[in-house]
Amino acid sequence: MNARMDTQDACDLRFGQVGIANVRIRRVDAAALCDELERRVRTAPQLFSRAAVVLDLSHLLELPDDGTVDALLEAVRSAGMLPVGLAYGTSEMEALALRMGLPLIAKFRAAYEPADGGSIAPPAPPAEPVRRAEAVRSEPAPPAAAPLGAQSIDGAVRSGQQVYARDRDLVINGVVANGAEVIADGSIHIYGSLRGRAMAGAQGDEKARIYISDFRAELVAIAGHYRVFEQIPKDLEGQSVRCWLEGEKLLIAKL
To answer: What are the structural domains, with CATH classification, of the chain?
Structure first.
């Protein structure tokens, strides 16, 4: 008798939203990087210890050589974090990622391009040629897309869950538990207790805000600027608060 063949798939492969931190390198100094990341891990070990991170080299004017990048990756590991990829950049960055055996993570490209247009930033598209006025035919402008309404969640966001509102605000009518994440490209309104993490302006919108009825957060962040529980004044705990950015500083105040 022939043995029964097992036709069940060996695995499922799916894509979803995951919480990955970005380590943007401002200067090439592996020892200083390790020291800085170790300090962050000590400040909030539950958040940063063994956290998955992407190494972002786009702020540097010149791409480091392979040995230097390997030293930076080892500094991240030594600090207690786990580098899982490189932030998307140029074709040279793609070749570097291939040599390092790491994937490129395109999610972080737009928010961290060098402000001075350095060599790592993608080149600007070529300008359209100037045409004589009589050769241009006026075409009606396409209608503007209607803005998306806020995504609303009624009920608790449980530990281990993540909610992401793409291209819109997020409204939570309930508790965000410890270990849960709520993320929005726009602002976040939580009519309940925030005990987990809230990240607004996920695609770099520095005008985004976070409003919370009962503030007990593990972390709040706007456009990549964050504050963790240990950095939050005790007199704000349990209060109704708002969070916003002034420059690169994330501020929190009672409502």
So the answer is: 21-112 (3.30.70.260), 151-254 (2.160.20.70)
